[in-house]
Amino acid sequence: MERSDAELIAAVLQGDIASFEPLVTKYSPRLFATARRYARREDEVEDVVQEIWSKAFQKLSTFRGDAPFEHWLMRMAVRTCYDFLRHHQRNRENTFTELTTEEDDWLERIMSAPEQVSEKSEAAKQLVQKLLAMLSPQARLVIQLLEIEDWTVKEISNLTGWSVPLVKVRAFRARAEMRKCLARVARDKYL
Amino acid sequence: MKLDNLHQKLIAAARAEQPSDRVPYAFEKRIMARISSGSAVDLLGAWSAALWRAAMSCVVVSVVACACVLWSSRHQETDFSREFDTAVFASAGSADEVW
């Protein structure tokens, strides 16, 4: 019979480290999907997920069980991803490269007939990745959670540990920063 | 306005791209090996944490003891001054009686 998360956690806390493995197996796919939103290279993604599991194991005694384990783990995941973004901030200025021909074409087409342009094209996906890489860690996290993943301000506050007013302020600044980056990318096309 | 359009299109593009949830082969084994090796190292960490806690509680006890000593010595000082006053005035009172 499959043991519940609470039973597995209780066993780990009593010293049965092997009981941690089913938790790792169960939740790793979600953690990998989350980490891949922030880290691009696969070795970086693996490092981030390893870091999340190490922290989860070390801090397991602080899990009170009043919310699902997955929520607690996701909080840790988001904070670890944010730390990853902050540590890699130095490389941020160099991440913007010239637009490829496909990206340039996509921008041309969106300028002439925006309603006919598909956002599912590969060029659009590459362009948005370049744009997100240009943002500061705070702005990137907020845009990712608020606009792309559709979390509410309150949920973001829970995930990040920031207060609700702080999330709102950072969301405002993140949108302004995004707009500035967009203007930089599209300077030749629009301005 | 055009920037808004572009913004919306790019956000839609980001939403449309769901990152893969593929887990590398034997990843959970790697995590368990790391945790198991880490738990041996953690014994040292737990020992040092316990020592720190002990040191902190010693500091708290000594601070409380110092506070108690200061408080009691302050009270003793007031008692001594009162006693001193009484002794001085008592001698003055007895001098009046002599006169």
Structural class of chain A: mainly alpha
Order of helices and strands of chain B: HH
Please state the CA-atom Rg of chain B, rounded to the nearest Å: 38 Å
Largest interface (CB within 8 Å) is between: A-B, 44 and 32 residues
SSE series of chain A: HHHHHHHHHH
Question: What CATH architecture label of the largest domain in chain A applies?
Answer: Orthogonal Bundle
Strand portion of chain A, in percent?
A: under 5%
CATH class of the largest domain in chain A: Mainly Alpha
Helix tally of chain A equals 10
Structure, briefly:
The complex is a heterodimer of chains A (191) and B (99). Chain A is an all-alpha fold.
Task: Show the helix and strand layout.
The complex is a heterodimer of chains A (191) and B (99).
Chain A: H1 5-13, H2 20-38, H3 42-58, H4 69-87, H5 101-112, H6 122-134, H7 137-148, H8 153-160, H9 164-185, H10 187-190
Chain B: H1 2-16, H2 27-98
What does this structure look like?
The complex is a heterodimer of chains A (191) and B (99). Chain A is mainly α. Chain A has two domains: 87 residues, Rna Polymerase Sigma Factor, Chain: A (Orthogonal Bundle); 98 residues, Winged helix-like DNA-binding domain superfamily/Winged helix DNA-binding domain (Arc Repressor Mutant, subunit A, Orthogonal Bundle). Helices cover 71% and strands 0% of the residues of chain A. Chain B is mostly helical and 99 residues long.
Features:
heterodimer; A: mainly alpha; Arc Repressor Mutant, subunit A; 2 domains; 0% strand; elongated; B: 99 residues; mainly alpha
